[in-house]
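Entry 14. Ran structure prediction on the chain below.
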Amino acid sequence: MTPDLCEAFRRNFDGSWTCTRQSVLTVGGGQTVTIEVDQTVRPGELLGDYDLAAYLEQTCARSDTAE
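Output, structure tokens:
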């Protein structure tokens, strides 16, 4: 995962994250996952055995949230 990932997602009020720019991620075991624009990931939702929302929360959380 890269810091650029923070720029590709917007944090929502409910703790979920919405993709604002298509992203291709490499997760566990070298598996790639494509996240499409407007796709929302929620805490506890696993993508290739990886909790992307938890990563985003830990790495990218900021004070500006979606309205």
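Residues 4-60 form one domain. Will compare against last week's run tomorrow.
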